[in-house]
Amino acid sequence: MVLQTCVYDFPRPNLSMAYKIVIGNGLVFAEGEEHKLQRKLLTPAFSYAHVKKFVPVFMSKTKKVMNQFDKIVETGPTVFKVFPYFSRLTLDAIGEASFGVDLNSIEEKNSELVRAYDKISNAGEKFFPFYMFAFLPGWKYIPTAYNKEVHHARKIFSETCKNVLKEKKDKVNSTGIVRGKDGIYNGPNRDILSILLGNSDWSAEEVENQMMTFLFAGHETTAGAIAWALLTLAKHVDVQKKMRDEVRAAIPGGVEDIKTAEQIESLKYVNNVTRELLRCNPPVISTLRQASRDVIIDGETIYKGTNVNVSLKALNYSKKLWGADAHEFNPDRWDGRQADNAYAYMTFLQGTRSCIGKRFAEIEFKCILASFVARYVFEESVDNQPINRQFIVTVRPTDGLPLKVSKISGW
Ligand code: HEM
């Protein structure tokens, strides 16, 4: 009920609203009728038919990072921090898929725009000044050093959005692009922004809020998912080998030959491992809601103001839902089956506010993982490598995730 029938009676609590000030009122933070409308307008951009066209984007970013890995491991197995590479890969992928803009954080780590984005998305790391946004309505106007930095970052992001928007509108006007039957832009650059432009009459500020939202919601989550996936695979080299064998047999020509979602979807074992990795390592482990009125669920009254913690990871690990081996990493559990209960697999949440980018993320995740595992072996940097993580909206490694990486020739 909290996630479906009474979803709008359980908005996010005030605490989460600090993010709304920084990120903007896009899909993640909109509530009620506004959320319903935004979701309806944005859904076509995230259909499977559309997101599978982003495979070339995912692959071009993947290849860039693989070139960097090739150089690092040129002289043999090397231990290095892998997380920053995947964080930049997923940032560039979402940047290009959302705006049609190459943020180029993979090669140019310190651009002003990437720094601005980092500032905004990591604003919550400084607990005190950040959460003041939620509790003191006028706080954002006080010119503290922290507030100035956040405003400056937001301004840089905002200017880029305006330029991109103008460029796209000009292109549309000069090429006479029209909406297709499905309401989707028939433009040559069918990134998410192009679709938004064709599908709605949103103002520049509204579009900017959605763009910031996609970067925020789509970047850290996928980067975290890949990081934890690699650590799990480093602890299960047998699974890695089976994946590698499958990818190499199905796509013998190497990474250059991965061009379509169909190729990736045909990798049965990679698909099973992906589901299991995402079940065992959800980058969002829980989400908070607060009852905005008294609601009766199963005869129990949930009083107005009650906080509800929906623990996604607990459901993913529930023995009642998954059986006695729920806590074990076992890709074969997915052989020929889906989760028996829709609310058992909660990595992307379920219901009205489930992840709109689920299909996008799954394909991206598989493109990246299949390619890297086919070419490299990932091993723990020390025996029983500890899991050093921090939880700020998503769970991410605090140590950059050092892993031992070696290249296997022939792919
Ligand atoms: C492995 C990667 C991802 C995971 C695990 C994930 C997980 C989630 C979860 C758990 C939620 C619900 C959060 C809450 O209500 O507190 C969510 C919402 C959302 N996600 Fe994702 N996500 C991923 C990737 C993406 C990508 C790539 C995009 C965009 C391209 C995206 C866009 C969104 C948006 C816009 C929402 C808000 C939906 C709404 O409230 O209607 N996510 N995601």
Automatic annotation (TrEMBL):
<dbReference type="Pfam" id="PF00067">
    <property type="entry name" value="p450"/>
</dbReference>
<dbReference type="InterPro" id="IPR050196">
    <property type="entry name" value="Cytochrome_P450_Monoox"/>
</dbReference>
<keyword id="KW-0560">Oxidoreductase</keyword>
<comment type="similarity">
    <text>Belongs to the cytochrome P450 family.</text>
</comment>
<keyword id="KW-0503">Monooxygenase</keyword>
<protein>
    <recommendedName>
        <fullName>Cytochrome P450</fullName>
    </recommendedName>
</protein>
<keyword id="KW-0408">Iron</keyword>
<dbReference type="InterPro" id="IPR002401">
    <property type="entry name" value="Cyt_P450_E_grp-I"/>
</dbReference>
<feature type="binding site" description="axial binding residue">
    <location>
        <position position="355"/>
    </location>
    <ligand>
        <name>heme</name>
    </ligand>
</feature>
<dbReference type="GO" id="GO:0005506">
    <property type="term" value="F:iron ion binding"/>
</dbReference>
<dbReference type="InterPro" id="IPR001128">
    <property type="entry name" value="Cyt_P450"/>
</dbReference>
<keyword id="KW-0479">Metal-binding</keyword>
<dbReference type="GO" id="GO:0016705">
    <property type="term" value="F:oxidoreductase activity, acting on paired donors, with incorporation or reduction of molecular oxygen"/>
</dbReference>
<dbReference type="InterPro" id="IPR036396">
    <property type="entry name" value="Cyt_P450_sf"/>
</dbReference>
<keyword id="KW-0349">Heme</keyword>
<dbReference type="GO" id="GO:0004497">
    <property type="term" value="F:monooxygenase activity"/>
</dbReference>
<dbReference type="GO" id="GO:0020037">
    <property type="term" value="F:heme binding"/>
</dbReference>
